[in-house]
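Example 4.3 (complexes with small molecules)
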Amino acid sequence: MSEPSGVGIVLGTLEKFVDWSRRSSLWPATFGLACCAIEMMATGASRFDLSRFGMEVFRASPRQADLMIVAGRVSQKMAPVLRQIYDQMPDPKWVISMGACASCGGVFNNYALVQGVDQIVPVDMYVPGCPPRPEMLIDGIMRLHDDILAGKYRPRIQGSKRVTI
Ligand code: SF4
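Answer. The structure with iron/sulfur cluster bound is encoded below.
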């Protein structure tokens, strides 16, 4: 068998390479609010193995994270804390709203809970369910990956305008 000759060459734009790099190294902030957080923790554990997607490193510091997974209901008391953590995350950053409570208050239609975390931070991906299973969270993450790779967030990152979902 002869040795393959020549050198492999990959061509692409720098923008595409940057999108691919961002997609391939999203690091979530360690941040859970209620029962949905248990499913989020299961997603990072060995059975579902989020590390397959370069995401096993849940960061304890928002300074080192670029993905906020809002897993659970958001109380009015917690809302300013959540916003502060979001503000401390460096750009570019993304938010996933995980579960019915985070997305719209769920069954808790009362004065104590925020009726949708998009009132506090901009949400890029909604994952439905009560609670969503780890597969559903992974599906939401992979859809976000696809959007990042497709360049959907480039205008926002470049500061021209916000892209609405
Ligand atoms: S959506 Fe369901 S599982 Fe998630 S925080 Fe609300 S009540 Fe809990």
